[in-house]
Amino acid sequence: MQLLRDSIEKSVFGVCSYLGQKMGVAASRVRVYFLYTSFVTFGSPILIYLILAFWVNVRKYIRRKVYFILD
Q1: What is the C-alpha to C-alpha distance for residues 53 and 16, in angstroms, rounded to an integer?
Q2: Which residue of 24, 53, 70, 71 is most buried, as measured by CB atoms within 10 A?
Q3: How far apart (Å, rounded) are the C-alpha atoms in residues 46 and 67?
Q4: Which helix (H) or strand (E) holds 23?
Q5: What three-state secondary structure class fits 69?
Q6: Does the pTM of the predicted model rise above 0.85?
Q7: Are 30 and 19 in contact (CB under 8 A)?
Q8: Per-residue pLDDT of the chain (71 residues; tens, 9 = 90+)
Q9: Rounded CA gap, 53 and 48, in Å?
Q10: Which residue, among 19, 2, 24, has the nearest Cα to 56 in the 3D structure?
Q11: Number of H helices, E strands in the chain
């Protein structure tokens, strides 16, 4: 079950796990709050999620490039 959860998190950009690590909260809690706010606000957090997913991927790309240049 843990392997399935890890693969799903990686395939959806890992935004919830990233936010959970930064805030010191379990990723499952972040996912639950995200779902609750999505239902309450009629889906507007989906836009925020996509923006955060883009930002996380850009940061990974920049860090990879910096490490490549330093090597």
Answers
A1: 9
A2: 53
A3: 32
A4: helix 15-23
A5: helix
A6: no
A7: yes
A8: 778 777 766 666 577 778 888 888 888 888 888 888 877 777 677 788 788 888 888 877 777 766 666 55
A9: 9
A10: 19
A11: 4, 0
- Which residues are CB-contacts of 27 (< 8 A; sequence separation ≥ 6)? 9, 16, 17, 19, 20, 21
Closest CA to 4 of 49, 12, 34: 12
**Tokens linked to 26:** 């379990």
Rounded distance between C-alpha atoms, residue 10 and residue 46, angstroms: 17
Q: How many residues does the chain have?
A: 71
Name the residue type at position 30. V
